[in-house]
Specification:
6-stranded antiparallel β-sheet, Phosphatase 2c, domain 1, single chain, about 35% helix, 2 domains
Amino acid sequence: MDDTEQLAACGRGLTRLLLASYGLHPDDLLREVRVACDDMGGSDVIVLLADYDQEELVAFDGDDALTVGIDGPGPGEAFRHEAVVDEPVGAGRRRLWVPIKDSAERIGVLGIVDDGAMAPLLWESMASLLGELIVSKSKYGDRMTIRRRRRPFSLAAEMRWSMMPPLTYTSPDVTIAGFVQPSDRIAGDAFDYSINGRVASIAIFDAMGHGLEASRMANVAVGCYRATRRAGADLVSSLRTLDEEIAAQFGDSRFVTAQLATLDLDAGRLEIVNAGHPPPLRLRPDRPPDVIDCPPTIAAGLGSTPAVMVERLDRGDGVLFRSDGIVDARSPAGEFFGDERLADLVEELSERDTPPSEILRQAVHAIIRHQDGRPGDDATLVLMRWADDARLVTQPR
């Protein structure tokens, strides 16, 4: 097919899927995807979804024989690198593994067999529409959510995930990625972010305890942060309101550690308030990591008296926020994973142009392996990186 024929076929497929999506039952999405891909000359369509731990890709249609490891070749490689993988299948045909993303967040992988006539970029457009539909349709049924769970979720975890923002955001100016574990038992850890105009806002929380009450406190923390942020409150006011709400709702012996920050996307001015939370790390190209000096005040709920700390970032700098499940991670022999090892791993992956979401996936999994697969606490990492000048040139606003 020439370019005009490819675009026409792609247009037919995308239009068919988009029109079919109105009122579509979530369980019927795969059927319509296969019909749309047929319009584009594709066959043997497979849709794989990433499990919540991001260890495996599982078949949308429930065929467990199609489960593959994310750290493996083919579909795993496509997911990790967020790039199309091309595998010859004989007789002039190929299988493409195309990452499925909802905007920047990785959802899974689309597998298609074709004769090579369609440009991979056009298959990426199909996968992009599919990602949007998977996210929107999963709100109307449980099939996709259930397929992504490797173990039953606790009530606390169910509540936590209901408040989770998209795990990844990218733009020419800034990238933000977060990852939490263990997915089925997460309770007190939480994070949130927002990009408004030329300001990136980010927050990370850790409610005391490990069960349902911790999840309730974390939900109140996120809800309070969103409400005050959307009302135009500054960081100090937001944290004071959070302190008052935790005390009012849970009594004066319960608390949430919190760290709220804003980044001016033009000037690189980072402002942080810290209520008893481990300080973030500043990651700079070709330089050792630094712990950002933001002395903690008392945790929210116990009478926090926040003060703003200001840090000036350089282009290309990253800020790595972490919960105490990261800071306190120890091996069975008692060895801490440590800031230096964490920063080295993140920087090594960054130098390979690893996507931010993949950096955090590998980092958190490394920390869990360090604990012999038995984390003693919720573990959360959030990475915010201010884009360097080269990226701004290649991806203008």
